[in-house]
Amino acid sequence: MIRRSLPTEPFDFLAAGELPAPCLAVDEAATLLAALGGHGQLSRLGSQQDQNLLVSGPDGPSAVLKLANPSFPEQDTLAQDAAAALVAATCPDLRVSTVLETGGRPMRAVLDTSEGPILARLLRHLPGGTFVERGWLAPSVAARMGMIAAQVSRSLADFSHPGLERRLQWDLRESLGVVELLADWLGPERERVLRASSSAWAAVQAAGELAVQPGHFDLTDDNLVCAVGGRLPDGIIDFGDVSRSWRVAELAITVSGLLHHAGGWTEPVLAAVRAFHAEQPLTRAEVDALWPLVVLRGAVLVASGRQQAGLDPANAYAGNALDREWRIFAAAESVPVPVVTGWLAEALGMSEPSPGVSGVPLLASPPAILDLGVMSPIMDEGAWQRPGLADRAALSAGGTVAAGWGVARLSEASGWVPGSDQRATTVPTAATLWNHGELRAPWDGTVRAEDGRLVLVGEPFDVILQGATGMSGPVKAGEPLADAGVRVDVQLVRGGVEVPLLVAPELASGWLGLTADPSALLGLEATALPSSRDPLRRRERHVAEVQEHYYADPPQIERGWRSLLIDTDARPYLDLVNNVAGVGHAHPRLATVANRQLRLLNTNSRFVYEALPAFAEALTSRLPDGLDQVFFVNSGSEAADLAIRLAMAATGRRDIVALAEAYHGWTYASDAVSTSVADNPNALTTRPDWVHTVPAPNSYRGQWRDGEAWRYGPDAATRIRELAAEGRPVAGFIAEAIQGNAGGILLPDGYLREVYGAVRESGGVAIADEVQVGLGRLGQWFWGFEQQGVVPDLVAVAKGLGNGHPVGAVITTAAIAESYRTGGYFFSSAGGSPLSCAIGSEVLAIIDDEQLQANAREVGARLRAGLEALDSPWVGTVHGAGLYLGLELVRDDQRTPAPELTAELCERLRQLGVIMQATGDHGNVLKIKPPLVLTAEQADQFVAAVGQALGEL
Ligand code: PMP
Question: Model's pTM, two decimal places?
Answer without folding.
Answer: 0.95
